[in-house]
Structure formats: structure tokens, C-alpha cells
Amino acid sequence: MTALDLTGHFARFRAAAPARINLAAHSHHDWPDVTLAAQEACWQDAALLAGDKWGKVFGEVIPAVQRGIAARLALPDPSTIAVAPNTHEFLRRILSCLPSGRPARILTSDAEFHTARRQMARLEEDGLVTVTRVPAEPFETFSFRCAAAAAKGGHDLVFVSQVFFTSGATCGDLAALVAAVPSADTLIVIDGYHGFMARPTDLSAVADRVFYMSGGYKYAMAGENCCFLHCPPGYGERPRDTGWFADFGALAAPAGKSVGYPADGGRFLGATFDPVGLYRMAAVFDWLDGLGLTVAAIHAHAQSLMARFLDAVEAMGVAGLGAADLITPFGPHREHGNFLTFRTERAGEIEAKLAAVHVHSDHRGDRLRFGFGLCTNAADVDRAVERIGRALR
Asked: Strands 210-215 and 129-134: what pairing?
């Protein structure tokens, strides 16, 4: 594994806070310099075109984003991709596709991000859904236990993270999970927010069966307001939660229905949004394509930095930051995202002490997380480790 040095492409972010070392790429990745020009282009298009800017957004910007996403996920048809400002919009629309007249039955894990966890729990309070939660730990057996739970059938929705935000562990083989679901009517959703652009992901074998949602805030390096959902044909054809942008395109409604929907991903569109994030995302894809940089190379870069970081803090003997404190074991043939998660009662204390020396990490309860992305090089890791030694000595 060889670390890259692309820090020169992040000069604007780095110059804005030169003391900062971002080891929280899993939470907020720095934006490459090309995104500033993209942001300015969005403004210029608004000034030049006014209300006609939507012709460019839907005719050029969104198709470019769709092509970039499809290429990185091996999706056969970019038009299956819908966009929205956040993934919560997509979650609501997916939930609005579930059967009415009885509580919808949901299978998920106990380690989903707050977007899903909170929404499902609130609906559960009012008896609108029943939720079965498969424990994420032990991670080594999660994929088998989740598949076994799915195989029992009777679910309207199976919703699982590709990479768990609390640990960096993965849910396992997506195709095996899909194969375990017995009913063709069950909606299957993969939350890829910590997987997209972090782990090589090939959805070609399951593209006709699973929804996959993610966004640009983390490893896609495009910031807020640019989330997406791959919508498999024939599933969730008429979301009850629907916005007027879903009126665009060829519409069809069943006999006796007045509200039509396009057959492609446009059926999951909402309403008016700020398109600037999509400009940034398209610029990131162009930049990476120009460098010939693949997701596999990004993952290898992160692995190299994680190994370097872990070896160094392990050698220092910092309490709470040893290999034994890792929630998800790191090493060859281990499946994980691009961040390390340590379980320690000192998580909040350590994060605060590191923030004081401008090393950015974050914590969730007793879990301390360090993320590694393209904005960071080996020298950054070495400087961070030196500061950690001073801060926690």
C-alpha cells in the first residue's frame, strides 16, 4: 500500500486553516480546489440564465453527476439516479412506498446513522412500523446473521449500511444479502454514505434490485447539498412523498390515478433545491478522471495512512489508542471503511485535547474516530502523531 500526495490540489482549504490536520475525513472531507471554480460557475450561471438555469442543471450538470456516480458504482444506466439535498429526503420517500393499512415491517441493524435510526424510531412510537434490529456486533458474523434474519421473510423494507458509521466495519457481501431476501416485493436499501468513494463498490450484479444512497459530504469531497439515490427499475414506482420535480420527464399513471411518475430515478425527485453541490460534485469527478484516480486507489491510500497512524500510536503506548482498542480489526484481508474507530472511555477527552493542538478527529459516545482521505498525506500523519504524543503525554 502506497500513500499518495495530492495535498497540492487542496491548497485553498489548507491555506484557510494552515495549522489544522484533518483526520476526520469520514466526517467532513476537505474540498479540492476545483470545487471553488465550480461554485463560482454555479453563481455565474444563475446570473446569466436566471430562471433558465434549470435547463442547464437538468440538461448538463445532473447528467454529468449521474454518469460519474454510475461509473464508480458500475451501474448500467445513469438515469436510475435521483438527486436531493440530503439522504433524509430519500429515506422519507422510500418509507412512503411501503404498504398502507398496517404497520410496515422493517429489518435493519442497530448501528444505522441517525437519519434512519431516529426516523424509524419515531414511526415505531406511533405504531406505524415494526422494526427488527440485527446487532452489528460481533462484526465478523453480521452478514450471516442479517442474511438469516432476512431469509425469514415478511419484511417490507431491508435497510442496512454498507459501512457502519460507528465502527468502520462493513455489512458484508451485498449480493449475498440480496439473495437471502425471499420476497421480490421487499424493498432493499443500502446506505452507502461511508462506502461511496471510500471502498471499491460494484453494484452491477444487484443494480436491478437494490436502492443505494449516498452523498458528497465525505469521501466524494463535494460538500453539502449533493446526495443521490440509485432507484432500481420497478421498485417504489409511486412514492407518496413526492415533489414537483418528479413531474419532469415522461409520466405514466395507473388507470384511475391522476399523479404520474417517470420510470427512471426521477420518480424520487423532490422540489426546488440549491444545485451548487452538484456543480462541485461534477468538478470532483472530472478532476479524478483527469488524474486517472480510481476508488481502489483512494482506498489503498487510506489504508496506507491508517497503517502508518496505527503503528505510530501503538508504539507510543497511548491509553485508548492501541490496536487492542480498535472496534474493527485493521490489517490484510480485513474489510473496513477508510477510518479507524477506537473504543475508549476517554473518547471525548482525547478529541478535545487533540482539537486544542489542531488535530481534527471526532467521537460518538465511547468511540473515537480518525478518518483518512486524499486531503491528507504521510507527512500530515507524522505531524499529527507527534502532536498526539505531546497532547496526551
From this structure: unpaired
Domain ranges of the chain: 7-33+294-392, 36-287
Name which CATH class applies to 7-33+294-392.
Answer: alpha beta
pLDDT mean for each 10 residues of the chain (393 residues): 91 97 94 98 98 96 98 98 98 97 97 96 98 96 97 98 94 96 98 97 98 96 97 97 88 78 96 97 98 96 96 90 88 84 94 97 94 97 96 87
CA 284, CA 287: separation in Å to the nearest integer? 5
Assign 3-state DSSP to the chain and report helix, strand, coil percentages, each to 5. 45, 15, 40
Residues 6+ apart with CB under 8 A from 16: none
| Type of residue found at 299 | H
What are the grid coordinates assigned to 120, written together? 424509524
Q: What is the pTM of this model?
A: 0.96
CA–CA–CA angle 70, 65, 5 (5° rounding): 85
State how far the Cα of 393 lies from the Cα of 391, in Å rounded to an integer. Answer: 6
Looking at residue 326, the DSSP 8-state letter turns out to be B
Question: At a CB cut-off of 8 Å and minimum separation 6, what does 267 contact?
Answer: 82, 231, 236, 237, 238, 239, 242, 246, 261
Q: Which residue has the cell 504521510?
A: 378
Rounded CA gap, 16 and 58, in Å? 33
Burial class of residue 393 in the structure, from the number of CB atoms within 10 Å of its CB (0-12 exposed, 13-18 middle, 19+ buried) = exposed
Domain over 36-287 is classified CATH 1.10.12.10: no
